[in-house]
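$ ./design --mode recover --in tokens.txt
reading tokens...
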């Protein structure tokens, strides 16, 4: 009986450990989401800064163009072309980084789902094991009660038989005592 209680306590401890594991996995998932959001914000800030810088550069070039339009028209055109290429490169870089970030998020989300799925399957298996152990304990308890009941019935029968034997011996003794006295 003590061994069965120990097994039940061990099963309960295991269940607590799995619950703690699930909580830890949830916290890791939330941390990953927060890190992803932070990276997105940082990327957006950097992109906005780059755009603002490009706008400032374009404005400066326009002022310079207005001041020395005739003398520097060719230089301004070259700078505009260079800036356009740089803008295209920056846009391509931003698009590439966004795609990489989304792919990382999808990968992390997939890994998290797999971990949660594995933990859920393990919890289900543990619940099934607990149910099986519970049934085994109940069966053992029932068998123990039946064995005890059978022993009590056997002892009751023996006790009844012994009472009958005592009564018969007492009657014989009284009969012999009565004959001896007469």
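writing sequence...
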């Amino acid at each position: 009986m003590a061994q069965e209680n120990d097994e039940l306590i061990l099963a309960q401890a295991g269940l607590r450990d799995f619950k703690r594991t699930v909580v830890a996995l949830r916290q890791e998932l939330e941390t990953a989401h927060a890190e992803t959001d932070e990276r997105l914000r940082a990327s957006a800030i950097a992109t906005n800064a780059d755009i603002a810088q490009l706008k400032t550069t374009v404005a400066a070039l326009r002022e310079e163009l207005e001041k020395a339009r005739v003398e520097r028209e060719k230089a301004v055109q070259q700078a505009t072309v260079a800036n356009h290429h740089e803008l295209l490169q920056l846009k391509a870089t931003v698009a590439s980084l966004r795609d990489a970030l989304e792919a990382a998020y999808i990968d992390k989300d997939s890994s998290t789902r797999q971990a949660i799925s594995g933990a859920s399957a393990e919890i289900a298996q543990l619940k099934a094991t607990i149910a099986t152990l519970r049934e085994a304990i109940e069966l053992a308890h029932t068998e123990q009660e039946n064995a005890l009941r059978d022993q009590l019935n056997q002892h009751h029968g023996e006790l009844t038989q012994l009472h009958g034997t005592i009564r018969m011996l007492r009657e014989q003794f009284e009969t012999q005592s009565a004959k001896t006295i007469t």
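exit 0
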